[in-house]
What we know:
Elements: H1 16-32, E1 36-37, E2 43-45, H2 46-53, H3 58-63, E3 66-68, E4 74-77, H4 82-91, E5 101-110, E6 122-131, H5 136-153, E7 159-164, H6 171-183, H7 191-199, H8 213-217, H9 228-243, E8 248-250, E9 262-269, E10 278-284, H10 288-291, E11 299-305, H11 306-315, E12 328-332, H12 335-350, E13 355-357, H13 364-373, E14 378-382, H14 384-389, E15 391-396, E16 404-407, H15 411-420
Parallel strand pairs: 1-5, 7-8, 12-13, 12-14
Antiparallel strand pairs: 2-4, 3-4, 5-6, 6-11, 7-9, 9-10, 10-11, 14-15, 15-16
Helix pairs in contact: 1-5, 5-9
Amino acid sequence: xxxxxxxxxxxxxxxxxxxxxxxxxxxxxxxxxxxxxxxxxxxxxxxxxxxxxxxxxxxxxxxxxxxxxxxxxxxxxxxxxxxxxxxxxxxxxxxxxxxxxxxxxxxxxxxxxxxxxxxxxxxxxxxxxxxxxxxxxxxxxxxxxxxxxxxxxxxxxxxxxxxxxxxxxxxxxxxxxxxxxxxxxxxxxxxxxxxxxxxxxxxxxxxxxxxxxxxxxxxxxxxxxxxxxxxxxxxxxxxxxxxxxxxxxxxxxxxxxxxxxxxxxxxxxxxxxxxxxxxxxxxxxxxxxxxxxxxxxxxxxxxxxxxxxxxxxxxxxxxxxxxxxxxxxxxxxxxxxxxxxxxxxxxxxxxxxxxxxxxxxxxxxxxxxxxxxxxxxxxxxxxxxxxxxxxxxxxxxxxxxxxxxxxxxxxxxxxxxxxxxx
Length: 422
């Protein structure tokens, strides 16, 4: 028997109300903040991610799904959205638009990583990008999009985790200090950290191996080595967060997993889902457009995994509306009655009434049981007797009253009136 590949899930009908609820909240919040939708390809040329995300990152070194296509091109299923969206910004000349350009998208991303609660090798991500402005107030707005969304969803215990990763001017000095510190502990760290020490030292702070945690905790803080521009940017952002009374914690080990980040990096944490309590993460990427062939263009964004949000909604007991159910079921006895019932079914649907019909050659009792399981309000019963008299029987499925006999020509009007009164 075939099963879904490891790291993927089937989103079954019973979970769809959560997804529809999230999509509706995303639509509300993106409209509120004036973000416009963009959709980019599911696959891109591999060098886009190698240049944008960075060699030495876990995503590029371990997690990308890459292949050579039939045209001999090196292709990768997108492991994240930002590089593709910035590529589209550059390719389509969006720098000529009023800045910043505010974009969002929603769709699958692919990473070959360790499967854990709410994290899969194919998962659906909601992504926000704000490109073309360096003002720390833009950082606040992007963070506010996340805050507003998660507040409207109903999450409890929200707070920001905040840090700065500096910029190309001040980061090299910090990296020298960090490497010197880690050289003193080289025999104590994991194999991955020894590799990171040589190739991508900032990633050392992102290690999750238990034995490396004390070393990370005692590591020097990048905020002590920021240049004047980066320090001022962080100070202004903190002032703005304080002005809005948004709770945040300076998290000196927060660096995120991508090379393109500069200055601000942040996550939103929420109560629940064990130790993995981040519901979104992002930051500023002021050098990415230039790295991808465009002119220097600042930007900031975040991504949030939908499966993770659904998991947290369930943990926090957040109730979501049910999806619309059928309102009317047509129950037939005999082939000729079914022909007429199919005509009535079409008329009901054209009038906006959600109607279903029993299929196969089942008994009246079986069809009524099925209608009851579908939670319809009314059943329209049509057999040979009703067919001959030009009538139907309307059964209120919520009461024990006897069926009402009405003309077939009145079915749509009668049900419209009954359904309107609830």
